[in-house]
Amino acid sequence: MFLRYKLDIRAITLGVSLLDCVSRSGVETRRRIREKLLRVAGGLVKTGREIETEYGIPIINKRLAVTPLALVAMSSDEDNYTPYAQTLDEVARELGVDFVGGFSALVQKGFSSGDEKLIASIPEALSVTGRVCASVNVASTRSGINMDAVRRMGEIVKQTAQQTADRDGVGCAKLVVFCNAPEDNPFMAGAFHGIGESESCLNVGVSGPGVVKAALEAHRDAGFDELADVIKKTAFKITRMGQLVGMEAAKRLGVPFGILDLSLAPTPEVGDSVARILEEMGLESAGTHGTTAALAMLTDMVKKGGVMASTHVGGFSGAFIPVSEDEGMVAAVRNGALSLDKLEAMTCVCSVGLDMIALPGNTSASTIAAIIADEMAIGMVNNKTTAARLIPVPGKKAGDWAEFGGLLGGAPIMAVNRARSDAFIARGGRIPAPIHSFRN
């Protein structure tokens, strides 16, 4: 199952609060951050490797998530927060951690001074670091959509792409714009340690698209009732494995177990694709008519199986549909079955949003902001987490290829609508929360 169907623990993510590291001096704050992370997370990678060896379960990534840096750095005497990102990057390298999330700001209702400084620092911070991930929450069901933040993030995405132009704009692959961002997400690039979390805790992300597809292969003549039950039972088994690893890792690290996130997160490898699960249900290609319905059932059954298997399910828990990280999605784009508009429709029922989408390099900041706004609206109205991880690849046009490397994979550049949205984005202000947000 592990070797043939790519079942794995995608990540064990140690969340660490940095609120007690705050100082009026940026230098002192970073010293405290470094000291605390080395102390609290020093055994993370070693523990992960020991569990891999003892249980024979692959743990692909060992990660850190910290308090949103905008909150931590705001009291310091500095305007550029890039040194904070460099400190996180240096600690991650020293510990052997794959990624560290939390270069983040929460601006769904407005900006603090720290938020503005952190957002302005994102392009440089992501261009000079390799393991740091950034996220900005610009909308929520309770607060509506901060369109000033959406417009700003369109500009930031463009700037980040330009600063990493020599690498196909890969800095944008480490930048997520959220609606309803979860505080306990173990998956990158959107992980951070929320202020409602404990001092530290261990969150686990489990993934097994290949296992689900293999289970469906034995039921090719089944109706949807039976198919749904197969997915649910398979998700249950996968989640139990994740629960075992998470509880054991937390115990050895001496921290509380946080949540388990069962998300079918693909990789560029053949046999590890969410798109291929959808095709196993009877679709000729992901993206054709029926794809949204198939994805809706898949996501729901994964959630139902996960909830039955663990008392602490959180994060996203469902199905990811990134383009560059899923060889089946790439194939669907190349054969013309999957477009940006269809992906947007699919995000209404999946667990994340427009993920790892490569766009033409000449896509304007306002168009990027408008794509983000549409995705935020889906999350706000449906009271769910949605996100946008968009990569305008400098110097490339629709149909070209962008390569990001490793788990980030590569993707064909997808065309965007040629009609402009400049005047819409220029209005600014806040789109009010929907009527159903007023619940108390």
Would you write up a description of this structure?
- With 440 residues, the protein is an alpha/beta fold.
- The chain has 14 helices and 14 strands.
- The chain has two domains: 15-57 and 64-179, Anaerobic Ribonucleotide-triphosphate Reductase Large Chain (Alpha-Beta Barrel); 204-437, Anaerobic Ribonucleotide-triphosphate Reductase Large Chain (Alpha-Beta Barrel).
- The protein has helices at residues 26-40, 44-55, 69-73, 82-95, 113-128, 147-163, 209-217, 224-253, 274-280, 291-309, 327-334, 340-346, 365-382, 422-426, and strands at residues 8-16, 59-66, 99-106, 132-140, 144-146, 175-179, 200-207, 257-264, 318-319, 353-360, 386-393, 401-403, 410-412, 430-431.
- The strands form two sheets. Strands 1, 2, 3, 4, 5, 6, 7, 8, 9, 10, 11 and 14 form a twelve-stranded mixed beta sheet that branches.
- α7 (209-217) runs antiparallel to α8.
- The radius of gyration is 20 Å and the shape is globular.
- The model has no long low-confidence stretch (mean pLDDT 91).
Summarize the structure.
With 440 residues, the chain is α/β, with parallel strands linked by helices. The chain has 2 domains: 15-57 and 64-179, Alpha-Beta Barrel (Anaerobic Ribonucleotide-triphosphate Reductase Large Chain), CATH 3.20.70; 204-437, Alpha-Beta Barrel (Anaerobic Ribonucleotide-triphosphate Reductase Large Chain).
